[in-house]
Amino acid sequence: MEKPVTLPTKRFLLSAAAIAALSAAALPAQAQTTLTIESWRNDDLAVWQEKIIPVFEAAHPDIKVVFSPSAPTEYNSALSAKLDAGSGGDLVACRPFDASLALFEKGQLADLSALPGIENFGDVAKTAWSTDDGAKTFCVPMASVLHGFMYNKKAFADLGLEVPATEDEFFAVLDKIKADGTYIPLAMGTKDQWEAATMGYQNIGPNYWKGEEGRKALIAGTQKLTDADWVKPYEVLAKWADYMGDGYQAQTYPDSQNLFTLGRAAIYPTGSWEISPFKPQVDFEMGAFKPPVPKAGDTCYISDHPDIAMGLNAKSPNQEAAKTFLSWVASPEFATIYANEAPGFFPLIDAKVELTDPLAQEFVKWRSECTPTIRSTYQILSRGTPNLENETWAESANVMNKTETPAQAAEKLQKGLDSWYKPAK
C-alpha cells in the first residue's frame, strides 16, 4: 500500500471541533434550510452528493445542501446571469482572481473577511479571492491544481518508453508512439478552445517565460506577449498538432477524455483535476510527468494554480446557514475529505492533510522539485475587453489548427491587451 503523503503546514489555528463549536455559537443555522451550491465542477457531482455533503448534513440535520453544477465553459456567463436576475444559488464556487473579484465589486459576493475559520488560510492562499490590497476576502479557498501530463503506463511499457524530462525527449517519445501506430500520441483537441490554452499554453509556457518572473513582467509592461519567451510555447504547441490524431480540430474536451480513459491515447496533457473522474473509468495504471524543460539542466516551473474557492451570494435569503456551511469548508475536516475524495485538488488550508492517492502524490511532489507559478492570464490582465484569458483560448487553438502562426497569434494577443491595459508606472 502506498505510504500517505502529508502536505506541509505553516500553522494550525483552530481544530475542527473548535470551528464547529464557534460556528454553532456565533452562526446558528436556520431550521429546515436548503442551500444550493453553484459550481462548474460537474465531474465532482457524485463526490459532493455521496461523500462531502452527507458528512456536513449528519452534523447539521437542519440544513440540506444541494450541489447544482453547470458546464465548465458556460459557468461564468450562467452564474453572472443568475446573480443579475436574483436567482443564483446560496453558495458559489469561485474561480480565482478577476472573475470572482468582479462579482464582489458588483456587490454579488459577500465579504467573508470575518468568517469563523477564514484565519486558517494564509495571505498567499487568500490572494486569489481577495481585493488587490488584501483588505477583504470574499471566498473561502478550497484547493489548487497542478498542470502536467498523464500517461498510460501500459502503453509506455509496451513500447519501451521512458518518461521524458526535456522537450527533445518529449518529441522523441511522441515519434515512437506515432510510428508504432497502436496509440494516438496525444489526447488533445481544439474544438472547445480552452483546452488548447489551459492544458497546452499554460501547461508548458511557464518553463519558457520563467514562471512568476515572466508573468509579473507582463503585468508590469516590461515584457510583451510578442517576446521570444512568450512566442516559443506556441512554436512548441504548433508541433503537437502532428501527434493529436485525425480530426483533432473537431475533437471536444469529452472526446479527449474518452480517448485517454478508453486506452486509445498514450499521453494526455492535463492537470491534477482529472484524477478523480478518471480513476473509476480506466482499466490501466495511470502515471504523471511534469512539463518537460526546454533543455537538460533548466529550472523547471509548474503551474500550481489556485483553482477553486467558495463564496456567499450576497442576496441569499439563507445567510446564517450558508455561513455555517462556509465555516465548515474552512475546516481541516473538509480539507481532508475534499483532498482524498476529489484527489488532485490540493488544499490551501494551513493544516496537515494526508494524501492517500498515489497519482495525487506524484503530482504534489513536483512542488518540492520545481518553482511554482499561476496561469499568466488570471490576475489583472483579463479585466478588460478583449479578455486576455478568452482570447488566449482562441489563439492557442488557432496555432494548433495551423490557421495562424505563433508570431501572428502573439501579435494579436498583445494588440488586444494594448487596447485597454496600461501598466502602472
TrEMBL record:
InterPro entries: Bact_solute-bd_prot1, SBP, SBP_1_CS, TAT_signal. Its main location: periplasm. It holds the Pfam family SBP_bac_8. It is found in: Periplasm. Residues 1-31 form the signal peptide. GO terms for biological process: transmembrane transport. Keywords: Periplasm, Signal, Sugar transport, Transport. One of its GO terms (cellular component) is periplasmic space. It comes from the Bacteria. Belongs to the bacterial solute-binding protein 1 family. Part of a binding-protein-dependent transport system for a sugar. This is Probable sugar-binding periplasmic protein.
